[in-house]
Design a protein that fits this description.
Bound molecules: adenosine monophosphate
Radius of gyration: 21 Å
Strand content: 25-35%
Structural class: alpha+beta
Length: 459
């Protein structure tokens, strides 16, 4: 099968790496990709096998090796992507980021008779409009925070005041992950409302806002792969959004993840999954939303929840929905996933997910993001990255590239989040130690990373 992956981050590197291992994949392209993606080879076996009894099948005999080709087309240049897919006779396109989904790439490709994995524009609204999502959750009984939606700042301020000012003020549309302002009091809430609705700091994305009550607890990520009728839940994972240790500093795209988390037992996860996914699926059917792709709800486990209380007392609230794989959640999920990813995505497109059982390695996976100096603020590009080969030689380690590029014979930094250094281990401690041992081998000018990824789970 000829496959095109759209995107250029660590998530897309993980997708390409896993797709390339499938015997179904014959040729793989990535638009625009990065330096690490360009090193992947179709038909190459995964080298990851720390503690599991996984027998690596080297499929090189079954499928001739071929390098993945990066194509210089931006992820939101829909007309060029369509022309490329038609010219190359792509049989499956896999969309990584939110923006092309919100722009309607799935509708465009389908209209032109191309098979593509990801939600269509209507279904992508779960991420592209927080107002849509909040109303959907309230209408269909999905547990979420108490909230209001507003386009008028006076009404918004009145609602924020009714919450004592402790709230999350959210721009409706996509805002590069920066559209959520957490407020501790009325002064902050009023300032946030003014910034979004009046000063229009987020442009059209801030024409409307959602204000949610502030929820305290343990935040985790859920993922479910869906085919329009069936949703299959992944194990839990946890991201680390803030730039600095101890959840300090500015919000980022995500500085590291691990999976599974110890905060929900299997029974609790099932219960939480059911309370979200059952009404969500019913709501989608009622509103004629055909969601093929990954639904990624951000969840707050309320303070009275946690591993020590019975499943019946776990209280979870959905903070938001994303309509794609998380980054860097994908890196830890795909290093644990045992299923063939081509078969899984194909079943999601074809509506046959019900027949597939998700299988996960028992190992824990930890991903530590190494970022450019200054990120998430301004940062320089073009810094030479050293030590990648040494890191990659360590057992159980896979270094996913995010913001990297090739410059002559060197690999250089080309973005804020540069690498997702990922390791499998027989338990969380082993995986964490392996990931940090690999990070220590890698050097570039200004590199920074958090030293406490997965620490909450070990406390
Ligand atoms: P969102 O993009 O809606 O997930 O918001 C970004 C981040 O803001 C989340 O990952 C949470 O850490 C935080 N957040 C969002 N909504 C709330 C809320 N209602 N209460 C507390 N924190 C929140």
């Amino acid at each position: 099968m000829k496959i095109l992956v759209i995107g250029s981050g660590g998530r897309e590197h993980a997708l390409v790496w896993k797709l390339a291992q499938s015997p179904h994949a014959t040729q793989l392209w990535c638009a625009p990709g990065n330096a690490g993606i360009a090193q992947e080879v179709v038909g190459q076996a995964s080298r990851l096998s720390p503690s599991s009894k996984e027998k690596i099948r080297d499929r090189r005999d079954a499928c001739p090796t071929k390098r993945v080709e990066c194509v210089n087309i931006s992820a939101d240049d829909l007309p060029k992507l369509l022309t490329f897919a038609q010219e190359k006779k792509i049989e499956l396109t896999v969309v990584g980021p939110d923006n092309p989904l919100a722009l309607g790439i799935v509708d465009l490709f389908q209209k032109n008779g191309l098979r593509i994995w990801g939600p269509n524009q209507k279904a992508a609204q779960f991420e592209s409009s927080k107002v849509f999502s909040q109303r959907f959750m309230e209408k269909h009984g999905i547990p979420t925070a108490r909230a209001g939606t507003f386009s008028d700042s006076t009404a918004a301020k009145k609602f924020a005041a009714s919450l004592g000012g402790r709230c999350a003020v959210k721009a409706d549309g996509l805002a590069l992950g920066k559209g959520v302002l957490i407020c501790a009091n009325e002064i902050e809430a009023n300032k946030a409302i003014e910034e979004i609705l009046v000063t229009k700091n987020f442009g059209a994305a801030g024409a409307k806002i959602v204000i949610q009550e502030f929820l305290e607890g343990m935040e985790i990520s859920l993922h479910a792969i869906c085919d329009g009728k069936t949703a299959k839940l992944f194990p839990t994972s946890q991201d680390h959004k803030r730039a600095l240790d101890g959840d300090k500093g500015l919000n980022t795209g995500g500085m590291g993840t691990y999976s599974p988390t110890p905060f929900l037992s299997d029974a609790e996860l099932k219960k939480v999954g059911d309370t979200i996914l059952n009404p969500w699926l019913r709501g989608c059917a009622e509103e004629k939303i055909n969601f093929c792709g990954v639904l990624y709800p951000g969840i707050m486990l309320l303070k009275n929840g946690g591993a020590s209380v019975p499943a019946s007392r776990i209280e979870a609230r959905v903070l938001e929905f994303n309509a794609r794989f998380g980054d860097p959640e994908t890196q830890v999920y795909l290093t644990r996933l045992e299923n063939d990813l081509v078969e899984l995505l194909d079943a999601s497109v074809g509506g046959t997910l019900e027949k597939i059982e998700l299988k996960w390695k028992p190992d824990t996976s930890v991903c530590v993001v190494v970022a450019s100096g200054g990120y998430p603020g301004n940062y320089a590009k073009g810094k030479i990255i050293r030590g990648l080969d040494d890191a990659a030689k360590l057992p159980g380690v896979k270094v996913f590239h995010a913001g990297t590029a090739k410059s002559g014979n060197e690999i250089v930094t080309n973005g804020g989040r540069v690498l997702g250094v990922t390791a499998l281990g027989k338990d969380l401690k082993a995986a964490q130690a392996a990931a940090y041992a690999a990070v220590e081998k890698i050097h570039f000018d200004g590199a920074h990373f958090r030293r406490d990824i997965a620490a909450k789970a070990l406390r």
